[in-house]
Amino acid sequence: MSKATISKLRIYPIKSLGFVEIEEVEIGVHSLKNDRLFAMVDEVGRYINGKRTGRVNQLKTEYDLSNGIVKFSERPTGNQSTFELKEGNVELDNYLSNFFDIKLNLVKNEYGEFMDIPLKSSVTIVSEASLQYLQKDLERHTLESMRLRFRSNVELVGVDAFWEEQLYREPGVGVRFRIGEVEMLGISPRARCNVPPQNPTTGEMDYHFVKNMMESRNEHVTAENLLQYGRASYFLTINVYVPKTELGKRIKLGDAIEILEPVKLS
Predict the structure, then answer these.
(1) Closest Cα partner for 40 from 91, 118, 117, 92?
(2) β 5-11/20-22 pair status
(3) Domain limit, last residue, from 86, 108, 130
(4) How far apart are CA 186 and CA 121, in angstroms?
(5) Are residues 136 and 199 in the same domain?
(6) What are the φ/ψ torsions at residue 207 (nearest 5 degrees)?
(7) pTM above 0.90, yes or no
(8) Gap between the terminal Cα atoms of the chain
(9) d(CA 38, CA 87)
(10) Residue 76: inside a domain, yes or no?
(11) Residue 54: which domain range?
């Protein structure tokens, strides 16, 4: 019998911008280390993200995290700029403010508080088969485009489409499981927003994406599932909580998932 194993690991050092693909990652505080470590916020503390502007898709990022460097490439023009990646870098803040035409600052948080569901969802998990299943039905989208649209941390192989939904039981009941040496808790399916319909390189909106995705998902999701989820079938990936006890442990490519037991959520 095949096992679910990690085939891809991605972190997103600046919330809503590009990823770093890695072979192994340390567990931070309620997050993967360096994942959503920085965020762009305006003068009243609101995030600059894909929910707010498709411009985030037009800024390609390359990271040298060991030396604290980020390089931006503007997709519309090809212009490149390199900065020290740190909070309080005025040149970096000015560059981003000019690109987004919004006065903003880059801020840092090492405690998982920039996650979409802070302190509860540390990681998102999806199977490659799930992405392939949707790709088949959503025309004109490559597998990598699907990855970029849903921005998951952990991708699995060795299982059927939507296998990862076994990591969530029902509202109020999660599933405790182990990846490598790290124990995690699946807590809920991830309801999607207006980010996946955006072209991941141009930011252009595909106004048919949500409808087409829901039709594709409805071929697989049962009426019982929908009652459990309490929402329409516009969801993908599983929200996973990583407790502080796992701080400093590591997960890596090839690690297998072992499902342990259902757990009542407090």
Answers:
(1) 92
(2) antiparallel
(3) 108
(4) 9
(5) yes
(6) -75, -5
(7) yes
(8) 34
(9) 8
(10) yes
(11) 38-108
Segments in the chain forming alpha helices (H)? 90-100, 128-137, 143-150, 209-218, 223-229
Interhelix angle 128-137/209-218, nearest 10 degrees: 120
Q: How many other C-beta atoms lie within 10 A of the C-beta of residue 168?
A: 22
Q: How far is CA 171 from CA 229, 230, 231, in A?
A: 7, 9, 12
Using CA of residue 80, residue 85, residue 89, residue 93, what is the dihedral sign?
A: positive
Do residues 242 and 121 share a domain?
A: yes
Contacts of 252 (CB under 8 A, 6+ apart): 6, 9, 23, 24, 25, 180
- Residue 111 to residue 109: CA distance in whole angstroms: 6
What separation in angstroms does the CA of 54 have from each of 76, 125, 149, 200? 13, 24, 12, 9
What percent of the chain has pLDDT above 90? 77
Is residue 29 domain-resident? no
CB contact set of 88 (below 8 Å; sequence gap of 6+): none
DSSP per position, 148-203: HHH--SEEEESS-TTGGGGGEEETTEEEEEEETTEEEEEEEEEE--SSTTB-TTT-
CA distance 73 to 62: 8
At residue 109, what is the residue type?
N
The Cα-based distances of 69 to 62, 72, 155 in angstroms read: 8, 10, 26
- Of the two residues 227 and 26, the one the predictor is more confident about is 26
pLDDT in tens, 117-133: 888 899 999 999 999 99
Tell me how far apart the alpha carbons of residues 3 and 156 are, in angstroms, rounded to a whole number: 9
The total of other beta-carbon atoms located within 10 Å of residue 261's CB is 8
**Tally of structural domains, the chain:** 2
Q: What is the arithmetic mean of pLDDT over 217-232? A: 59
* Amino acid in position 5: T
